[in-house]
Every structure is written in structure tokens, then in C-alpha cells.
Amino acid sequence: MHPESPPATRNHFQRDRDRIIHSGAFRRLEYKTQVFINHEGDLFRTRLTHSLEVAQIGRAIARNLRLHEDLIEGVALAHDLGHTPFGHAGQDALNECMREHGGFEHNLQSLRVVDHLEQRYAAFDGLNLSYEVREGVLKHCSLPNARLLGELGERFLNKQQPSLEAQVANLADEIAYNNHDVDDGLRSGLLSMEQLAEVQMFAEQLAKVRLQYPDVSGRRLIHETVRRMIHVLVTDLCEQSQRNIAEHAPQSLEEVRNLPALIAFSPAIEQQQQELKRFLRINLYRHYRVNRMTSKAKRIINDLFAAFHSDPACCLATTSAPLAAISHALLPTISLA
Ligand code: MG
User: Fold this and answer.
1) Domains of the chain, earliest start first
2) Ligand 1 centre distance from Cα of residue 56 (Å)
3) pLDDT tens digits, residue range 223-257?
4) How far is ligand 1, taken at its centre, from the CA of residue 175, in Å?
5) pTM attached to this predicted model
6) Cβ distance 2 to 122 under 8 Å?
């Protein structure tokens, strides 16, 4: 959005990625959680480790399909910057709090973070990222908001696809969270191996591990199974996307935008992936212990919103001390227990 000289020793997307890594919002991903609250244990994923896993999976796919690795990495590392704490419970609560002020969408907030809220550079607000990274960060957008975004919102209004790299980052996100939520779900004891044996993708890979390593059990068995699931998904995605690209043979980005999504799983794996998602929704995300935790999390977001709303000076603080103090006081009151 602001003219700048091109980077001397990096490409534009490398510079974008580097700016994301050096941003304050990136460091704050550490204490934002996916499903489990941070103090449940340091083995559970946070938004930070999730974003790193998305970047890793995204880069592997990018290299395989000869897409732009640096662009995908930038999108992956920035895609969750605008998330609230406490996963989707936090987003729902903040959306409710913000109802009279236009609501709250975490994708849009990620964009606000990189476009406006980061204040690190002398010449401009935000990180001044390339259009391509910003497009990838804005994964979803409601139509009323899309109308306010100019060029960036057009694809939602015209029902077009984003770049192939943005499509990869989006599915790398899915692969990452479905698999790490299986892993974290088992670690927490909220999911059991017996339950997961009903899910085709898990059952198939579990059987392969048991056949090859009959004596392996516990965490090692889980990890061997989950890594194979990731492998199946990544391999299938690369193969199917390669077929789609060959079939449609797009000659320009414009053509990519107007075709159906070219980065996709095969129908069989897509079906299995949907089965896994459904399983996680019912058995993990709606587990009564997770529900109990999320209703407490909603109360915390409501209280924080009310506190900042009644005393905006708290929000203007240059350090995060007030927020940290409040969260520390409140955090021990929520847990899975
Ligand atoms: Mg994500």
C-alpha cells in the first residue's frame, strides 16, 4: 500500500515473511490457544506452534508443486495473527461484544494487524505486505465487509479463487489442525484410540503401523499414526492438484482465479478428511470438558471487553501490562479439570 524500494537481498515475499516473524503480533500467538488452554501443559499446540506447522506443511506442498514457497510461508505465519485468545470461543464472544460496532471476524482482524495495528516502521503503519500475502491472509470474509475492502474484497463478491499459493496455505491449515487436534485430543485424554479407530483415515494408518511395528505402543504409536495421516493427505493433495493443474492448464493468474479451486484433495480423501473433521467436532470440540472451559473463556473475553470499553486508556497502554495482569488473575480459574 506504501511505495518502498525493493529488498536488496531477498525477494518481496521473503521480506514480508521476515516482517511477520519480527512483529509483536507474531510473538503474541504464543499464548493464544487452539483447543487447549496454554497452562494445561506445554505439549499442547498454541497458535504459534500451529502456525509453524502450517508453514512447514505449506512449504512441503509448495516445493512439490513448484509454487512460491516464500509466499506460502508468509501467508501461513500470518494467517492466525488476528485470532482472539481461547480459540473459537473467544472469537464468538468478541463477535457478540462487537455486535453494535460491526462484529468481529478473525480473518479481517489478521488483515488489520498487518495493515494497521503493527507500528514498527517509520514510514508507514502496519507491515506494508504485498498484495499476494494479504490476499492469502484474508481467507474468508463476509460480503458486507468485502465491499469495504476494495480490490482485496473483490474475489468474495465475484466468487473467484485466490492464488494457488493462498489455496495451498488454506488446506495446509486444515491438514495441520485436523492432525494436531487428534494428537492433542489423545494427549489430553478427551479422545481415545478406540474412538478414533472408527475414523477411516486413522484406522487405516494405525493398522499399518501395528503391522510393521507390532510392539510399538503409547505416544510412539500415536505419533507414527498421525505422521502417516499427514503424509497421506499431503501426498494426495499434491497428486490431485497436479492433475487439476494439468487438466485446466491455466496460463495466467487471472485464469486461476476464474477456475474452480485447483488445489484440492481427491474425492476419496476429501471424504475421509470430512469424516475426521466431523469426528473432531462431535467428540473433541464439543466435549463437555471443552464446553465448560469455553464458557469460562467467553466470560473472560466479556469481562476484558467491558473493562477496556469503560476505560479505553487501558487499550492505549504501550505495554501489554494491564492485559497481562488481568489475564494472569483470571487464567487459573479456567482449565479442563
Ligand atoms: Mg489456522
Assistant:
1) 12-330 (1.10.3210.10)
2) 13
3) 999 999 999 999 999 999 999 999 999 999 999 99
4) 10
5) 0.92
6) no
